[in-house]
Each structure stands twice: as structure tokens, then as C-alpha cells.
Amino acid sequence: MKRTTFCSVAFLVVALFPGTASLAQDAKTRFKIDSHYHYRDEPDFIKKTVETYRKYNTMVCVLTPIKALEVVKGAVKTYPDVIIGYGSISLDDQGALDQIDKFHAAGFRGIGELSNPLKDYNDPAYFPIYQRMERYGMHVLFHTGVVARRNPEKPGTTGMAKMRPAFLDEVARRFPKITLQGAHLGNPWYDEAAEAARWNPNLYFDITGSSLIKKKDTPQFWAEILWWRPSLESMHSPSAGDHAFDKIIFGTDENPEGLLPNIERFDAFLKANKIPEDVQAKCWAGTIARILGIDLKARPARPGMARKIEESEREEKTGNLLLVPRKMSEAIELGLVRLKKGEKNRLAVHPDEEEGYLILKGKGLLLLGEAKQPVAAGMVAYIPRNTQHQIECTSDEPLEYVYFASWR
């Protein structure tokens, strides 16, 4: 039966989903890179990160304090399809240059999030640090704009005025071989951030934090800030002809549980502003991949797997065997279902998922849309998205079938 199952599953994939690889993907399943994600010294942090980010087909730049260098270095080696190493330093730390050397030697691709400086970002005291990162070709992430105050009872040493996006304009001009990323699009100095990015080909911004939340009811606001287009011909704009949204890079600045809400907000942000697909691809991954030297066509593949059916994990709610769990793949799930006479699977409708069934044993009654039809061993069924479906076992022999699910 095992040989029949896997041969038949291969047939099912080809027969029912011949164009699976070419389907247009939605925000959840398309490839993404989270450019702004802080390491947390918590149990199973790397495990949770890998499981969550693989589930949503996303690589992640992990901003790592020096004390966690070895942990993240090991994670980069073990999970090259997910983890990208960044070093985290303080501009005012006397050991900053030494730390940059160590992060570079470990193969980390960037430094950040630089934050809470005692001086303005464009102060000459910080130039040796920028020179070192420029020499190594390391991408640099700066905090810009309003900054959290976690312990208001303690005196502070800095404030948002020292982290205005305008200071990055000078840093970008003085160090043209560095690529810079400002966090939070300079919140609340959005105009300032956008205009600095417009004139500096080595300056980009993410839009993490509260901005997409507070502007969710007025998404057209962003098109007013990010206003220039490739068709613009003016002596008052650069001649490169970039789309303004080319300057925006996806990030979350949250914990693993924050990935999905941030994907949804960022997707709504792009769609509300009617951003072309080629520009969206740059925002989600293309731009930061180019900066970091990640070849999207040759990026590390997820680890493969071969095991006995009985060794598969069980879905907690249904008890189904997850032959290939969704979290393991980029866009599919494969499962084995067994139902006794009179048992049904749950009634479902999937707006972004197609399914196929391969009936291995027994007989059943399949609800497909508004119609019911009998199924039996040796039959296949196809369930389009947005179609209600449910199957019931009608035979004394248990109904056994493999389902194949594919997400757009």
C-alpha cells in the first residue's frame, strides 16, 4: 500500500495541479524577506522563528547582540533557507569596531538596528564605524523617528530628534558604498524620509511599527509621500527613474507571532496604493536580496524528507496524519485521512487553497459545492478554492484517502 500511496500521490499532483509551480502567489505564500527582526533571549526562539517563517515562505534578518553571536551563527549554518545573520551594536560602545569585525568574520551580512545614539547620526564621531561597515560591504539598519520608552521611571540619555531621517541623507552621501535602511520610514517625519531616499540610491526604508496601523483608514496618504514614478522627467528629480515604492523594504520588528499580521498589513498597503507586481516583488524580497547578495534563483532550498507514513505527525484537531506538513513546505500540504462508517471530515471552504483527494480504500459520499456524489477506492476528486466540501464514509470498510493542498 505504501508504494501505491506515493506513486498515486505523484500522479495526483501532476494530474490535478499541472500548473502549481506557476500559480500567482498571495502575500502569505510568495517569497519574502523580513529585514527587521530582533533576536530574543528566550527558550526555543530559533525553533519558533524557523517554524513560523518557513510556514510563510520567509527568510529573516536576525539582529543579534554580540552575546548571542554563536547562537545565531549556528542557526545560519543549520537553517540557511531561513536565517540571515545581522550584528547589533551601539554607536557609542567603545568596542563597536571590534564587534563589527567579529560579526563580519562570522559571515553576518548586516549591522543594526542602530538606535538611541548620544549624538546625531551624522556626527563625525561615528564616521569610523561607518567606514568599517563600508569596507566590509555590510548593510546598515538605523532606527529613525519616535522611539519606545519601556521604562519611563528611569532617566533617558537620548530622544527621537537625534534619529531624524535627514541625518541619514548626509551619511548616505558621505559613504556612497554603504547601503542604509531607515526603520519606520522616519515616523513621524515621513516626508523627510521619503525625500532623503529619493535623492540617495543607497538609502531605503522599512515601514515597521505603528505607521501602517495609524494610517490604515487613509492608505492614499502613502502615495502622496512616495509620489515619484519612473515616467517622471524633471531636472528636480534623479534620472535613475525608480518607482518611489522601490525604496520600501518589508520588515516586522516583532516576535514570530507578529509575522502574519505584518504580512497582511503590508499587503494591504501595497494593494491600496495599486503598486505594480514587479515593484511589489522588490518590496517583499527583491531589493534586500540584491543588497545582501542573495541569489533568489539559487537560494537555499528547504530540507527534503523521506519517512514511513506511520512516522508522520498528527494534526491536533483532526488526528489526520500530516505526511508533508504545511510548515515544512513552501506552498503545499499532504495528508492521510481515515474515517469510519458514518464519520465525516469537517465542512470547509478555502478562499486561497485548492485540494485534491486520492481515494485509497472504502466508499464515501463527497459534498462538492451544492452537489453530492459517491466516491470509492481508485477515484480522484478536485476541490477548487471557494468551494464548500465535506466527505463521509458510507462503507463498512474504513474510508482512507490522501489529500493534497496547494496555496496560491
Give the CATH architecture of the largest domain. Answer: Alpha-Beta Barrel
Helix and strand element order: HEHEHEHEHEHEHEHHEHHEEEEEEEEE
**What is the rounded Rg?**
25 Å
Helicity level: 25-40%
Q: What structural class is derived from the secondary structure elements?
A: alpha/beta
What is the CATH topology of the largest domain? TIM Barrel
Number of strands: 17
Q: Which regions have little confidence, pLDDT < 50, spanning 5+ residues?
A: 1-7, 17-25
- Biggest sheet layout: 8 strands, parallel
Terminal CA distance reads 31 Å
Overall pLDDT confidence: 90
Number of domains: 2
What topology, given as strand order, has the largest sheet? 1-2-3-4-5-6-7-8
- The rough form would be described as elongated
Describe the structure.
It is a single chain. The two termini are 31 Å apart. Helices cover 28% and strands 23% of the residues. Helix 6 links the parallel strand 5 (139-143) and strand 6. The chain folds into two domains: 32-292, Alpha-Beta Barrel (TIM Barrel); 309-407, Jelly Rolls (Sandwich), CATH 2.60.120.10. The protein has helices spanning 2-16, 45-55, 69-78, 96-105, 127-136, 166-174, 190-199, 211-214, 220-225, 259-272, 277-292, and strands at 32-38, 58-65, 83-88, 110-114, 139-143, 180-183, 203-206, 248-249, 313-314, 321-324, 332-339, 353-361, 363-368, 371-376, 380-383, 389-393, 399-407. It is elongated. It is α/β, with parallel strands linked by helices and 408 residues long. The strands form three sheets. The protein has an eight-stranded parallel β-sheet, sandwiched between helices. A six-stranded antiparallel β-sheet has the order 9-10-11-17-12-15, covered by helices on one side. The longest helix is centred in the C-terminal third of the chain and has 16 residues, at 277-292. Mean pLDDT is 90; it is low at 1-7 and 17-25. Helix 4 runs parallel beside helix 5.
